[in-house]
Amino acid sequence: MEKKKAVYLDNAATTSISTEAYRDMIDAYGKLYGNSSSLYSLGREADFALEEARAKVAKAIGANANEIYFTSGGTESDNWAIKGLARANRSKGNHIITSAVEHPAVLESCKALEKEGFRVTYVPVDEFGVVKYAEIIKAIGPDTILISIMTANNEVGTIEPIRAIAELARANDVIFHTDAVQAVGNVDINVKDMKIDAMSISGHKIYGPKGTGALYVRKGVKIDKYLDGGAQERGLRAGTINVPAFVGFGTAIEKTCANIEENNKYLRSLRRYFLKTVSERIHNISLNGHPTQRLAGNASISFEGVEGEALLMLLDRDHISVSTGSACASGSLEPSHVLLAMGQDENARSTIRFSFGLNNTKEDIDYVVNRLQKDVKKLRSISAIRIYKNKVEL
Question: What is the dihedral of CA 352, 357, 362, 367, to 10 degrees?
Fold first, then answer.
């Protein structure tokens, strides 16, 4: 009888904390208990550690330390960016451009602004999830103040043409923000070279602690404060700062971004092995997202004739952790808005996202594919959906 093992393949939702980040964070919890806003020595020690972490974040993305604001994660960074930039620059106009495949934190923030009188254009994507650049050009008008397009999609892994869009925004005197939560640590990003005005980052996607993130805002760009209160984060986000957590965040981003090329080579090898193995063992499947311009560790696959949530639960029974899409939408019974925007109506409920991490091995993949083959066969045998015989090559 095949022995069950625990295999975690949902690294796009969250990663485990790295040994180095955990070590530095725990060490800081024991030593840096002073309030970083206090003037006595314990406070100054905590503040020094906080600013050291801020410098590491800045260096990782090519920014200046005074352009980095710590947050609780990607959702807060997106909310602050979208709402803070729009409200601070409303005197110039009230038009925002975003895409149909953004993270809910961006889409819901835009919807909230629509209730305040802002006008939002949701640009479509092609069948690979790539934002239609021509539609952005068409949408820009004299009242456009903000463009927000994600760097890489969290569900299907497609990497967007951010550099070109940012240059377009700069040429039209429009602020450009990107949700880079999935991209930082996986894609080389230099905010200065790429003309990015604001960018959202999350710690728990790059082997750092949960509850940590950052918002980069280019010096000179106007943004409203996020929390009223004290003078923390240069008066824009009040509240006592969890210094040890951000120490761990700083360690994680420094290590991950320093090894992007090596990490991607490993993750790409795992994905290729997975795609080869699964396509040989299971027919009638398709890979979602751009075939080449995608995150190294992402494989979003639709299994024809299979209910994605049912397959997820069978895999979970075998201690395999995957997802049907964004973790932030996992409680919703609605099909993926990303896949629907890509024209994947039939596959929207038949998709599983496998996202590989540095802790995964080929042995993990062999186990997962063995279980997948059995579970897909079982679900298809009871499905009322017709299964075609044509094998879809990955």
Answer: -40
